[in-house]
Structures are given as C-alpha cells and as structure tokens.
Specification:
Blueprint lengths: L2 E5 L2 E5 L4 E5 L7 E4 L8 E5 L4 E8 L2 E6 L3 E6 L3 E3 L18 E5 L7 E5 L15 E5 L10 H9 L5 E6 L11 H7 L1 E7 L7 H11 L2 E2 L2 E2 L1 E4 L13 E7 L11 H6 L4 E6 L2 E5 L17 H9 L1 H5 L3 E3 L11 H7 L3 E4 L14 H10 L4 E4 L20 E5 L4 E7 L2 E3 L7
Parallel strand pairs: 12-13, 13-14, 14-17, 20-21, 21-22, 22-23
Antiparallel strand pairs: 1-2, 3-6, 3-9, 4-5, 6-7, 7-8, 10-11, 10-24, 11-12, 15-16, 18-19, 19-20, 24-25, 25-26
Length: about 425
C-alpha cells in the first residue's frame, strides 16, 4: 500500500491505508488505469462504470487502484466513489508526521501563480486530509502554451480535474490572466474575489468566464468580498484566516495601481505549529518612504492583529518584493523563517523586483531567514520579460510540525543557506 507524495516532480512512496471504490457513471464509457499518476502515462486497462477497485494510495488528482490480483495502476480520483463509511476523526488530533501539505510557487515570470495541495489519507469524506487543490492567481499569460501554472498542473492533473478553490487576489494583469487556463481545462468548485470594482475590460471578461464555470454538474460557488468568504472546507487539519480584502472604501489605501494592490486578498494558512502568510500585492508604504513605519494594508494589519496575529513561518512577500511592501515593522511582526518572492525580469522604469531595500529589511531583521525567489539567477542569465518564466519554481512542504522549502533554478535544485539581499 502506498501514498505518492510529490517532492518537486518526484513521487515518494509512503505507507497508506487501503479503501474500496467504485467507478462512477460519469466515467462512461470507461475509466483508464494508467501506469503512473500522469495524464500522458500509458493506459493499462479501461474499467467500465460500476467496477469495484481497491484504493491502494494517492497522488495529487490520482488514486492508485488494484483490480483483482493482477492489475495495479493509477486512475483519476474524480471518477471514483468511496464505498466505505469514513471513520469519525478527531479534528484536534496532532498532525501525522507523514501528512505533508504542499505549496508550489510556480515561476510564471513577473506575477503570482500558486498551487496548494493538501495531504490525502485515502479516506474520502472524513473531513481531514482530503487531498484538496487550491490555486492562487495564475500569472500574466493566458495561453495554454505559455501559461506556466497551467503547464505545471497539466503535468500532474488530467483534463477536467477538480480545483476545489480558485483565489484571485486582485484585478491586475500579472495575477488573473493565467487563471483562464485553469477555468478552461479544470472544473473549479469555489471562487474567491476581493470584490474590487474594476472596470478593466479584460477583467470583466475574465469574471464572465468565472460566472459560466461549473464543477461536477454544479455551478461554481462565488465568494465576492471578504464578508462572503466564510470558512473554507480544505480539511479540519488546516485553519484559514482571512485577514484582509477590499473593504469597500478607498480611504487611506492610496490611488491608481496602489489602490488596486491594497484591495488584495491577504490570508494566513495555519497547519499545526506552522503557518504561511500570503500577502497578494498588499502594500505598506509609498515608494519615496524608507520602510521605518507602515501604513496602507500593512499598517492596518499591525494595528488590528499585531505580532500575535501575524507571526508566520513563511511569508510570501507582498507585491513581488516591491519597495512599497514589507516594511520594517511588518517584517518584525511576521518574523518569518522563510521569505518567498514571486517575481521576474520585467523592468519598472529600470527597476526590477524584488527591490534590494525590501530584501535588506528581511535580512536586517534576521540574517538566518532564507529567501527563495522565482527569478533565481535570471539577471545572470540575461533573462527578459519574455524569457523569465524558466522553471525557478519553489516547493514548500509542511507536515504541521516542520517546514521544508526546495528551490529550483532553471529546473535545477539549489539550496539557500542564508539571507541574501
């Protein structure tokens, strides 16, 4: 019996409890059993609806199944229904050492594209370790051939696979366009939007695409505005804290692009003793200021939550590491062990992100903080805005007690040993 947990793109077998499943009618005419948990893997058999199989293990979007004494392979989870009554679980139980939550920060160039996969214990319906899939933003490219978030998911998922939640942090074109491919090729159950009243034509078109989405025959459930976010069903082992989104008033949040950035969804994901703070593009100062004090979203979060509500193991830096984010008092309050930067080689009037001053704030607070970047080595490789999505991906793995981070440079693993502004 095994569980295939991905580390980067490598699957590692782990002990797992078996279950019994039946092929759903929606798999008609039959459900392919593949050699590996990949959509392009060779087909070993095709099982008609109603076939009973043993569930031997899991990988993101896939379940390892056994049929009789001779056939074992991988089938799409979406088309398998459990025939076993799930046991009652203790939601307060300590996390399992092998129950790894994965957060993939994909190198989409200048932008954000993140895929979260929760641990799956091979027991559907018990409300814990359910193997959920959550996408945050999608990057700037909307075409199938250029959207690296979609291409990353395509390597793991099958056409029509279920995305449990899609979160678009704010309506800027380095965040939402790549989510179009997610909507085209997968079925999205829940959508989260800050509710900022953008009149941008391409964003309005994107929202119309969201409106038309459905998953497993049910219309997408939309959560527009923080008051409507509710409590996500991502598994009882996780706690989701919605900290900020567009408050309905522009007062004290800047103007123009700054205002839109400060409408971003900000949330904290807590798993056991570990936590990750996702900042979207939320800001803390104007470009002309020196980082000594915080205003805008960072200032409001400090005033309402303080260090007790912001302290996080991992901080996804706001606004791609721009000087307008990650002020000194904010970094001090969050006190991260790891800082993650999602950025590329787009020039902003000769400035590239992350800004050196922002990294200096992080390293001055704690020289032991490890900074991982999706623009790793892009400058030395002479990357441009059209060639910067080159595989500098970051994979965060958390088992509720420990956090591990793996980084890639152009697809090659590397290790960050200390803070580097």
């Amino acid at each position: 019996m095994c569980l295939a947990a991905s580390v980067g793109h490598v699957y590692v077998a782990q002990a797992q409890q078996p279950g019994t499943f039946v092929v759903r009618e929606s798999a008609a005419p039959c459900l392919k059993v593949r050699a590996r948990p990949e959509p392009a893997s060779p087909s070993l058999a095709c099982l008609p609806p109603g076939t009973t199989v043993a569930g031997l293990g899991v990988a993101p979007y896939w379940r390892r199944v056994g049929v009789g004494d001779t056939l074992e392979g991988w089938a799409a989870k979406k088309y398998l229904e459990s025939t076993t009554t799930p046991p009652v679980t203790d939601s307060a139980a300590a996390p399992r050492d092998d129950a790894w939550l994965e957060i993939h920060v994909v190198d989409v160039g200048q932008g954000d594209g993140i895929w979260i996969h929760t641990f799956d214990d091979n027991i559907p319906g018990n409300g814990r370790y359910e193997g959920r899939n959550i996408v945050i933003d999608g990057g700037p490219k909307s075409g199938d051939a250029t959207d690296r978030l979609y291409l990353d998911l395509k390597d793991k998922a099958h056409e029509g696979a279920v995305i449990d939640a899609l979160i678009v942090t704010h309506p800027h074109n380095d965040h939402y366009p790549g989510a179009l491919a997610v909507l085209r090729h997968f079925e999205v159950r829940q959508y989260y939007d800050p509710g900022f009243p953008s009149a941008l034509g391409t964003y309005q078109s994107f929202r119309h695409t969201v409106d038309a989405e459905s998953a497993e025959g049910q219309p997408i459930v939309q959560h527009v505005g923080r008051d409507h976010f509710g409590t996500p069903d991502w598994g009882s082992e996780l706690k989701v804290e919605w900290l900020w989104a567009w408050p309905g008033s522009a007062e004290g949040l800047g103007s123009g692009n700054d205002l839109i950035n400060n409408a971003s969804i900000v949330f904290r994901l807590v798993y056991g003793t570990q936590s990750v703070l996702f900042m979207g593009d939320a800001e803390g100062e104007d470009r002309s200021e020196n980082g000594d004090s915080a205003k805008y979203v960072e200032g409001r979060l400090l005033a309402t939550l303080g260090p007790a509500g912001l302290k996080s193991t991992v901080l996804k830096l706001g606004h791609h590491g721009s000087k307008t984010s990650s002020t000194i008092p904010f970094i001090k309050a969050v006190d991260p062990e790891f800082a993650i930067v999602s950025s590329g080689r787009r020039s902003f009037g000769g400035t590239f992100l992350p800004d050196r001053a922002t990294l200096e704030h992080v390293c001055a607070h704690n020289p032991s903080t490890r900074i991982y970047r999706t623009d790793q080595d892009d400058e030395a490789e002479h990357r441009t805005g059209s060639t910067d999505a080159d595989g500098d991906d970051i994979v965060i793995r958390i088992n509720g007690k420990t956090t591990l981070v793996d980084g890639l440079s152009g697809g090659t693993p590397f290790t960050v040993t200390g803070c580097a502004p």
